[in-house]
Amino acid sequence: MPEFGIKDGIKDGIKDGIKDGVKELTERQTVSQTVILNLIRQDETITSSVLTQKAGISQRTLMRELATLQEKGFLAREGGRKEGKWVILDKKE
Question: Is the model's pTM score more than 0.85?
Fold first, then answer.
């Protein structure tokens, strides 16, 4: 799978929420979410502490961005905290 770009499906898909009354994301949020998805694509078992270090964001920001990605249907978590993995969902389904 190709990496998500800021102008690719992630930005368009997230902005689709505007018509549902959801606030538009800032450029920082879009970039953070794109970086997070790319890191998860490289390692589906990546931990939150490694994600925060590699993405250069705080733990709280990471948790907020992960929640947004899950709410929008871009990301899901399978399994538990220790043995689980991230799954990037295909928005075309």
Answer: no
- Which of 25, 20, 8 minimizes the C-alpha distance to 68? 25
CA–CA distances in Å: residue 40 to residues 3, 17, 19, 31, 59: 10, 23, 28, 14, 16
Residue 77 dihedral angles phi and psi, to the nearest 5°? -115, 130
What is each CA distance from 44 to 15, 24, 40, 59, 85, in whole angstroms? Answer: 25, 27, 5, 18, 5
Other Cβ atoms closer than 10 A to 91:
14
The residues pairing with 86 across neighbouring beta strands, listed in sequence order, are 77
pLDDT in tens, 18-76: 445 555 667 778 888 899 999 999 999 999 999 999 999 999 999 999 999 999 899 99
Count other C-beta atoms under 10 Å from residue 9's C-beta: 15
